[in-house]
Design brief:
The complex is a heterodimer of chains A (453) and B (426). The N and C termini of chain A lie far apart (61 Å). Helices cover 36% and strands 17% of the residues of chain A. A 5-stranded parallel β-sheet of chain A has the order 3-2-1-4-16, sandwiched between helices. In chain A, strands 5-13-6-7-8 form a 5-stranded parallel β-sheet. In chain A, strands 9, 10, 11 and 12 form a 4-stranded antiparallel β-sheet that branches. The radius of gyration of chain A is 23 Å and the shape is globular. In chain A, helix 4 crosses helix 8 (107-120) and helix 5 (65-75) crosses helix 8. Chain A has 453 residues and is of the alpha/beta class. Chain A has 17 helices and 16 strands. Chain A has helices at 5-15, 25-34, 42-46, 53-62, 65-75, 79-85, 92-95, 107-120, 143-154, 171-175, 183-194, 212-218, 247-253, 275-286, 307-315, 383-389, 429-448, and strands at residues 135-139, 158-163, 199-202, 221-224, 244-246, 267-271, 291-295, 319-321, 324-331, 337-350, 356-360, 366-369, 372-375, 393-394, 397-398, 412-414. Chain B is α/β, with parallel strands linked by helices. Chain B is 32% helix and 21% strand. Chain B contains 13 helices and 20 strands. Chain B has an 8-stranded parallel β-barrel with strand order 3-4-7-8-9-10-15-16, surrounded by 8 helices. In chain B, strand 1 and strand 2 (11-13) form a beta hairpin. In chain B, helix 1 runs parallel beside helix 2 (82-95). Chain B starts with 5 loop residues before the first strand and ends with a helix. Classes of the chains: A alpha/beta (453), B alpha/beta (426). Chain A binds chain B through residues 29-30, 33, 36-42, 61, 97-98, 100-101, and chain B through 64-65, 343-347, 349-350, 362, 390-391.
Chain lengths: 453, 426
């Protein structure tokens, strides 16, 4: 580009810094004082990882910051990330008893305050266990895999995490927009786990760089935490045009400088209405798009994005086109996106799963002018890899015993997004963290008798 | 609007709110600012032989984010020349003839010294004198303040000396650093005091810095005990005022102080026998302007109850304050939890379970909602649950009527005694 590039980059850097400012010391102290320190507190019950929230908040109040951070990270190895990405109003803050009298405690912000303190003060919170001579491989270094790795390291296992990307952290590192979760936070969590002696091999793909047989034969157990893959095709004409992007890839590009500039002044259409679609849209706004529209074939009521994400996108100026389905991507002579042909939809009765079906309205086709399209209609599964492992699955969702996270192969456990779907599991980072813990504990149970600790 | 004028042993003031003898009344400038803000009276910072003060003088105790729950100082009496103070007293009184200007005095326990300072001070036009027998730090090491205030004979004698020379009312300010304050209050009355005031500050060490291991405050690495005051001492002060008020040998008016921070506190002190209140810490925390709400709150309180004069509430609660032996053993209250108001923090449960009488159960109602319930037969009516409850109206302490006639411990003991006696005489 031109000489203005550094200035643009500087501006983009600003736009991608965390939108929620951290609590000041004074704010955190006052907010921590407001916590009632409930007995048998409902916020703990509402946290998938069961963080002892009143305890970590009281520790902020008493000035025991290290103890506070440790309380959080003990229950949740990705507690610093979760402080930022958890839908707290649906979890801990939603359960706070003060909802019934004043206003709930800002638990997420306090959790961020305590973990920020640990990050800033370069604290090492945990120590690995006595080596027990057992080897575990974890495939996938996202929240679920890291969480399992941390717990197993504390129990004395020799743990190796295999991560296909350049850095570990998975969704937290690559998939959540920087202005919600800066990469450094996730990488700190990775580093904490590495300090426990966990080996993290990045840029390694099992089944390609290391044969599956070798993985299974050289480890006592394997934990599969491979998450999900890219956004699937729209399956409409023009899909391969220049200017069609994958929302997950787009977010990933914005997690590190230099920021991409290809959406500058573009009219962007995002397809889908989940949290990833919101991320794709708000990233586009920040990258300088002239106009950003979200297209969804259902209506506002059916959208799966969290309310606060929806609100956030609206405040960013993102427009929403409900009951709209793309049918064709139109291109110019150079093969670049120039518009999209859409059709209006209507909702029918709710189907068995409770979700209402949609059907196109006859003769309702219309054109939306645009020069970039961001797909955010869900994620593909690592289907062939799962089949190569020979695990029972339902369309790529690995079947597990939900109490133990054990797969159809007793040597392999699975957790995180790879088990999410088809009515199984939860999509949240915090749930993945808990599943990682559960897998680790049950694997430990199953192995305990085979060695003398 | 109710009449807020008060009269303490002949010293009148437009309202019952006086600034206590302390840093806020150090100079004419300050006292005049206070009167302009609306204070009814001021007790001038203690006059005596000018002293030297140290630097680093105050410290406070903050509690759970609340600033100044308690306050501690190691400042001594005035460090300004007597003549300067007297000149400013004269000017202040001239400017504010209707406000009460009282001079606090402290000299060594010597008849001539007392005569001299009383005469000099009265010549400046004060409305009354307050003898400082209470200051617990510094001056006490030189035999003054609480050192003499802790010895009933010295209190009586010095009061007598002051009274020999005084033409204006003499108030004796008492130290709380004593086992039974009524002993020194009685001594003051025997010495001829026209009124007593209480409490002065309580011996205290505000804290220790856990990083430097030095006392708080410290003066170049060394600390000494100070005098404690502020909201935390209010119950101690209120008890001392009440004990004096119900003692028939202490038949002089009382000026109450110690942690008075708002109009409600003032009403409490007056109901328990104080003719007016003196305030310092609250003013030091927020400035003289607090007097506006003190006056406004008090007069609204009186108006709402149709009470024409604030003097009509003085001592009204004193008859309700007695000895433990006169409390009815058959009176019974129990806790009742209003589950529609309760927010289920379970603090009452854990407080009762761990530290009281294990009578609050965590249950589910027929709809499966968590509720808390008191087993009334096991509840002793201790109030702990209602104290820890963070929500107004969630726990009521309700009286359980029973058929038993009132019976106090004293009545019970004398009944047992008389039964024994009857047995013996049979």
């Amino acid at each position: 580009m031109s000489t203005s590039e550094p200035i643009i980059q500087k501006e983009l850097q600003k736009r991608f810094t965390e939108v929620t400012p951290p609590l000041t010391n004074q704010e955190a102290f006052q907010e921590s004082q407001r916590c009632l320190y409930c007995y048998d507190a409902p916020c703990i019950q509402a946290c998938p990882t069961g963080i002892d929230i009143p305890t970590f908040i009281k520790k902020i109040a008493s000035g025991n910051m290290k103890g506070s951070a440790k309380t959080i990270m003990t229950a949740n190895p990705v507690g610093a990330s979760c402080a930022r990405v958890c839908p707290t109003e649906e979890l801990c803050e939603g359960a706070c008893v003060l909802n019934h009298s004043t206003k709930p405690i800002l638990i997420g912000n306090l959790q961020r305050y305590a973990t920020d303190w640990a990050i800033k003060n370069d604290q090492v919170l945990f120590k690995e266990g006595q080596p027990n001579g057992k080897k575990v491989a974890i495939v996938g270094g996202g929240p679920a895999g890291l969480s399992a790795a941390r717990e197993l390291a504390l129990l004395g296992y020799s743990v190796t995490v295999y991560e296909a990307e350049k850095q570990a952290g998975g969704l937290d590192t690559y998939g959540i927009v920087s202005f919600r979760l800066p990469k450094a936070i996730s990488l700190w969590e990775v580093e904490q786990i590495e300090k426990l002696g966990v080996t993290i091999k990045t840029g390694v793909r099992i089944g390609k760089d290391i044969p599956i047989n070798e993985l299974l034969s050289t480890n006592d157990r394997v934990i599969l935490a491979i998450g999900m893959a890219n956004v699937p095709d729209l399956q409409i004409p023009g899909e391969n045009a220049e200017g069609v992007y994958d929302a997950i890839e787009l977010v990933k590009m914005t997690k590190d400088a230099p920021f991409p500039t290809h959406l500058r002044d573009k009219k962007v259409v995002v397809i889908g209405a989940g949290n990833t679609a919101i991320d794709g849209a708000t990233c586009s706004v920040r990258l300088g798009a002239a106009n950003v529209k979200i297209l969804y074939r259902r209506s506002e009521q059916e959208m799966t994005a969290y309310d606060f994400e929806y609100e956030f996108a609206k405040q960013d100026g993102v427009e929403f086109r409900w009951l709209t389905q793309p049918v064709e991507i139109l291109t110019n002579e150079a093969g670049q996106v120039k518009g999209m042909k859409c059709v209006k939809m209507k909702l029918s009765e709710a189907a068995e799963d409770g979700r209402r079906r949609t059907e196109p309205i006859r003769n309702s086709e219309f054109l939306i002018e645009c020069d970039a399209i961001v797909k955010a209609i869900g994620q593909r599964r690592h289907l062939s890899f799962i089949e190569d492992l020979g695990l029972a699955h339902n369309e790529g969702v690995i079947l597990i015993n939900p109490d133990t996270m054990e797969t159809s192969n007793p040597k392999i456990y699975a957790c995180g997004d790879v088990i999410f779907g088809k009515g199984q599991g939860e999509a949240m980072v915090v749930s993945a963290a808990q599943q990682g813990k559960t897998a680790a504990y049950h694997m430990h149970e199953s192995l305990k008798e085979t060695y003398s600790a | 609007m109710a009449d807020l004028r008060t009269n303490l042993a002949g010293i009148t003031s437009p309202n019952p709110f006086w600034l206590a003898s302390a840093p806020p009344t150090n100079s004419g400038y300050q006292v005049q600012r206070a009167f302009e803000a609306g204070w009814g009276g001021a007790v001038w910072k203690t006059l005596g032989d000018p002293i030297l003060n140290v630097s680093s003088r105050y410290a406070a105790v903050h509690f759970n984010g609340q600033r100044v729950a308690g306050f501690n100082n190691i400042e001594l009496i005035t460090d300004r020349p007597l003549e300067v103070n007297l000149k400013e007293i004269y000017e202040t009184k001239k400017k504010f003839p209707n406000h009460a200007v009282v001079a606090s005095l402290m000299v060594e326990p010597n008849q001539e010294a007392w005569h001299e300072i009383v005469k000099k001070t009265e010549a400046a036009g004060v409305d009354g004198l307050e003898l400082n027998f209470g200051c617990p730090h510094g001056m006490a090491e030189r035999g003054m303040g609480s050192a003499s205030g802790q010895v009933p004979e010295l209190v009586e004698k010095q009061t007598y000396w002051a009274k020999e020379a005084a033409e204006t009312p003499v108030i004796v300010k008492l130290t709380p650093n004593i086992t039974d304050i009524t002993a020194t209050a009685e001594a003051a009355v025997r010495g001829g005091a026209d009124a007593v005031s209480m409490i002065n500050t309580i011996n205290s060490l505000a804290g220790v810095d856990i990083d430097t291991w030095l006392p708080i405050p410290h003066v170049g690495g060394k600390g000494a005990h100070g005098g404690y005051c502020g909201p935390a001492v209010k119950p101690i002060a209120l008890n001392m005022v009440s004990e004096c008020a119900r003692n028939s040998r202490i038949n002089v008016p009382i000026s109450g102080m110690g942690g008075v921070s708002n109009w409600q506190n003032a009403i409490e002190f007056m109901l328990m026998g104080a003719s007016n209140v003196q305030i310092c810490t609250a003013a030091m925390h927020h400035g003289f302007r607090i007097v506006e709400d003190l006056i406004d709150g008090l007069s609204t309180y009186l108006d709402e109850r149709g009470i024409l004069s604030v003097q009509d509430i003085i001592g009204k609660s004193v008859p309700t304050f007695s000895d433990w032996g006169n409390l009815d053993l058959n009176y019974k209250v129990v806790a009742r939890i209003n589950n529609d108001v309760c927010i289920n923090c379970n603090k009452c449960h854990i407080a009762c379970e761990d530290t009281s009488h294990q009578c609050i159960d965590m249950l589910n109602d027929p709809n499966g909602h968590a509720i808390l319930q008191v087993r009334e037969e096991d509840c002793v009516g201790c109030n702990l649950c209602s104290i820890v409850c963070p929500v107004d109206g969630a726990i009521d302490m309700v009286e359980l009527k029973n058929d038993l006639p009132p019976m106090t411990w004293n009545e019970r003991q004398s009944l047992i005694g008389s039964l024994k006696e009857r047995k013996v005489t049979k």
